[in-house]
Specification:
globular; alpha+beta; about 270 residues; Glutaredoxin
Length: about 270
C-alpha cells in the first residue's frame, strides 16, 4: 500500500513539465546556442577577476591572536610563510546547530568541497578556517569528518572586525614583508562557489598567476598550465617538467586551433 509521502512524490513527478525530447542534431544545436552564452559568462568572470585584482587594499593595523595545535599565533603566522591568505570563518561553537558533534551544516558543506591544498600552496596561497571552538573540539571534528584544512581558534574581535561575526564569510589578505593588507571579502551566496582551486585563486590579489590573465604590471605570471602538478609532487622553485610542457602545449594548440580557427576554451 502506498504511503501519503509516496503519493505526493508521484503527484510531483506527474506535474513536472520537462523540456522537449529531440534528436541528436537538434540537441547539439541547442547546446551550441547555450554555449555562446556560457562562453560570454566565462569571459565576464575573467574580466571581473581582473577588476578584483585592481581593488584597493586596506592595511591591517590591529594585532590579532589565534590558537592553533602548537599554541598562540598572529595573523601574520597564519600565512605560513606565503604571500596570500584566504580565511573562512566557519561556525563551530556552542549555540551552533549540531554542536558539539558537528559544525554548522552549511560550513561543513564548504569544508567538504575544499580541493587539495597543495595546488593553492603552489601559487603562494594559504587557506585556513577559523572558529570559536577550542582546538580539542576542532581536532575531534576534523578527525570525524576527514578534514585536513588548517583550522584555528578565534580569541578576539577578528570576526567582528572583518564582517563575519554573525554569518559565514571569506576574507582575503596579502602579506608584504611584515605588513598585512585586506584585499577582498565575500559572504552569503559568494561562499557557494568556493572550494575549487581556480575559484579560490580568482579572489586573490595575484589571481591564477598565468600569462593569459589581465593583471597589473609587475604581477607574477608563469606560462599557462605549466605549474600544474600532482598534489604529492610539487617542489619549491622547480622548473616545469619537460614532458608536461610538451603535453600541455599540444593540448592548448588543439583547442585554440580547432577546425583551423581560434577557439575559446569551453566553460
Amino acid at each position: 500500500m502506498s504511503t501519503s509521502s509516496e503519493n505526493g512524490q508521484k503527484d510531483a513527478q506527474t506535474a513536472m513539465r520537462t523540456p522537449a525530447v529531440v534528436s541528436k542534431e537538434a540537441w547539439e544545436t541547442a547546446h551550441a546556442q547555450l554555449l555562446v552564452q556560457e562562453k560570454a559568462n566565462t569571459r565576464a568572470r575573467d574580466a571581473l577577476a581582473a577588476e578584483r585584482r585592481r581593488m584597493p587594499w586596506m592595511a591591517v593595523e590591529k594585532s590579532y591572536t589565534f590558537e592553533g595545535p602548537e599554541g598562540k599565533l598572529s595573523l601574520l603566522d597564519l600565512f605560513d610563510g606565503r604571500r596570500q591568505l584566504i580565511v573562512y570563518r566557519a561556525f563551530f561553537e556552542p549555540g551552533v546547530f549540531g554542536w558539539p558533534e558537528h559544525a554548522c551544516r552549511g560550513c561543513s558543506m564548504v569544508a567538504d568541497q575544499v580541493a587539495h591544498l597543495a595546488h593553492l600552496n603552489a601559487r603562494d596561497t594559504t587557506l585556513v578556517f577559523l572558529s570559536r571552538a577550542s582546538q580539542a573540539d576542532i581536532a575531534r571534528l576534523k578527525e570525524r569528518m576527514g578534514w585536513t584544512i588548517p583550522w584555528f581558534t578565534l580569541t578576539d574581535s577578528f570576526d567582528t572586525d572583518f564582517g563575519v561575526n554573525e554569518w559565514h564569510g571569506t576574507n582575503v589578505f596579502f602579506r608584504n614583508g611584515d605588513r598585512v593588507f585586506r584585499t577582498y571579502f565575500l559572504n552569503n551566496r559568494g561562499d557557494e562557489q568556493m572550494g575549487g582551486t581556480w575559484n579560490y585563486l580568482d579572489i586573490t590579489p595575484l589571481g591564477r598567476q598565468e600569462v593569459w590573465e589581465d593583471s597589473p604590471a609587475g604581477y607574477p605570471q608563469t606560462p599557462t598550465y605549466k605549474w600544474w602538478n600532482w598534489h604529492d609532487s610539487y617542489e619549491a622553485n622547480a622548473a616545469p617538467d619537460k614532458r608536461w610542457v610538451e603535453v600541455s602545449d599540444a593540448g592548448e594548440a588543439a583547442f585554440r586551433n580547432k577546425d583551423g580557427k581560434e577557439a575559446d576554451k569551453a566553460p
